[in-house]
Specification:
Layout lengths: L2 E5 L4 H9 L4 E5 L9 H8 L4 E4 L13 H22 L2 E7 L22 H16 L4 E6 L2 E2 L6 H9 L5 E4 L3 E2 L2 E2 H13 L5 E4 L6 E2 H11 L7 E4 L19 H5 L8 H10 L15
Parallel strand pairs: 1-2, 1-3, 3-4, 4-5, 5-10, 6-9, 7-12
Antiparallel strand pairs: 8-11
Helix pairs in contact: 1-6, 2-3, 3-4, 5-7
Length: 292
C-alpha cells in the first residue's frame, strides 16, 4: 500500500488533500507538527513514506516584501528539505507552487516551460523552491503551480466577499487583474489523479480552466451565495495599492496534462458552483490555516 505524507496538512489545501486521500495510508502533519525548515526533522518524518506532498507555505504575499528571509526559509529551503528527504528515501515528491513565479505581463497563458521571472518577494521565494526541489530530486519531483485558491478550510477571497456582503451595500473589486479561480477540492483531486496515473515527474499547472478578473470572480461568488451580483462594482489596481506588486495577467496553460494523458481541471465556473453546494462559501472565522 502506498504511504503518503502531507506537510502543511492543516492548511486549506492540506485539509482537502486529506479528504481526497481518505481511506489510504496518510500521515498528515501540520506546520506545528513538522517544521519544514528543520532538515533533520524532515528526513526523519519522510522515512517510510512513498509519496510526500508539500502543502506548507509562507503565503502572506505583502508581508514577504519585508520578511523575505522568513518566506525563503519556508518556501525555498523547506521545499528543498522535503525534496532531499524524498530523494533519500526513494519517495515521489509533489510541491505546490504559484503563478507568481511569472512576471504577470503576458497576453496568452503561461506554458509550463516559460522561464521564471517573479515580480515580488513571495514569487522569488516560490521560484527558488521550484529550482531547489527539481535540482535535489530531478526524477521524482512534481511542481504543481496553482493560483487564486479558495476552499472551506481557511480564509480566502471568496469567503471574504461573502463576509463583506454582510456589512457593505456594495463591494469594489479590481477588474484589471486576470487569472484562474481554483477550488482546493478540485486541486486536491487532480493531485491524486496525477499520482495514481504515475505521470512523468516535472512541472504541471493545477488551476481550474478558463479565465476571470477578480471582479468577475466576485460577481460569480455573489451569485452562487444567493446575493445580488450587481452589488459588486469594478475598480482598478490603482485603487488598491499594496506592498507587493500583483500580476495583471496570471493565466496558466495546461499542456502538461495532455502530455501525461490526463484531462486538465474543469472550468472555474463549474468548480465554484460545486464548491458552493459543498458549503465552501459559508464564512467561518474559526477556519484553520497554515498552508497554501
Amino acid at each position: 500500500m502506498t504511504r503518503y505524507l502531507i506537510a502543511g496538512a492543516a492548511g486549506m489545501l492540506g485539509q482537502d488533500l486529506q479528504k481526497a486521500l481518505a481511506g489510504r495510508d496518510v500521515t498528515a502533519l501540520s506546520r506545528a507538527e513538522l517544521d519544514v525548515t528543520d532538515r533533520d526533522a524532515v528526513i526523519a518524518a519522510v522515512a517510510g513514506h512513498d509519496v510526500v506532498i508539500n502543502a506548507s507555505a509562507y503565503t502572506k504575499v505583502d508581508d514577504a516584501e519585508t520578511h523575505e528571509e522568513q518566506a525563503y526559509a519556508i518556501n525555498a529551503l523547506g521545499t528543498e528539505n522535503l525534496a532531499v528527504a524524498a530523494a533519500q528515501h526513494g519517495a515521489r515528491f509533489v510541491t505546490i507552487s504559484t503563478d507568481y513565479v511569472f512576471d504577470g505581463e503576458a497576453s496568452e497563458p503561461y506554458a509550463e516551460e516559460t522561464p521564471r521571472d517573479p515580480l515580488n518577494a513571495y514569487g522569488r521565494t516560490k521560484a527558488a523552491g521550484e529550482e531547489l526541489a527539481l535540482a535535489a530530486h530531478p526524477d521524482g519531483t512534481y511542481v504543481v503551480r496553482t493560483a487564486w485558491l479558495y476552499g472551506a478550510g481557511g480564509p480566502n477571497f471568496a469567503k471574504t466577499m461573502v463576509k463583506l456582503a454582510g456589512s457593505h451595500e456594495t463591494v469594489s473589486v479590481v477588474a484589471d487583474q486576470v487569472g484562474q479561480p481554483t477550488w482546493t477540492g478540485d486541486l486536491a483531486a487532480q493531485l491524486v489523479k496525477l499520482l495514481d496515473a504515475e505521470a512523468p515527474a516535472g512541472i504541471y499547472h493545477g488551476t481550474n480552466s478558463g479565465t476571470a478578473s477578480w471582479f468577475e470572480f466576485a460577481k460569480a461568488v455573489f451569485s452562487q451565495a444567493g446575493l445580488d451580483p450587481d452589488r459588486v462594482t469594478p475598480t482598478d489596481s490603482s485603487s488598491f495599492v499594496r506592498p507587493a506588486k500583483r500580476p495583471s495577467y496570471s493565466v496558466l496553460g495546461h499542456g502538461a496534462w495532455a502530455s501525461a494523458g490526463l484531462e486538465p481541471m474543469r472550468a472555474w465556473q463549474d468548480a465554484l458552483a460545486d464548491a458552493a453546494r459543498h458549503g465552501v462559501l459559508e464564512t467561518d472565522d474559526n477556519a484553520q490555516s497554515g498552508g497554501r
